[in-house]
Here is the input.
Amino acid sequence: MDQLLLIAHLIGLMLVAAAFLPLLGMMGQGGVAPQTNRLLTRFGHWGIIVLLVSGPILLFVRYGGFGGVSHWFWAKMALVVLLAAGVVTSAISARKMRAGDAAATQRVRIGRIVAVVSLLGIVVFAVLAFG
Here is the structure.
């Protein structure tokens, strides 16, 4: 059971990475607005849902709960919150950007950068937390 949960968790991670790494390359230069891709964004949103569902279940099935988790785990969780904030900021701002709000363009860029940097940190801290 725990192996299936780990597979689901890693698939969720792949969906998020597949969604946000290309979006980082579609940032736009100078005054040009970043591009959006709704299919990639949907992959990312589904990936986050899979991660948020499979992660806690995996933690309880494999490790019996939060008892004994290291500080690296909590650092990873802080980055998960930061990742979610970046995704939400980018998604809300992208709608406003497409509607013509120039100020939203910068928020889309910042949200994407926050999401990708958080994602990289999450991988590093997961390795440190769980070996």
Notes: The chain has one domain: 2-130. The radius of gyration is 16 Å.
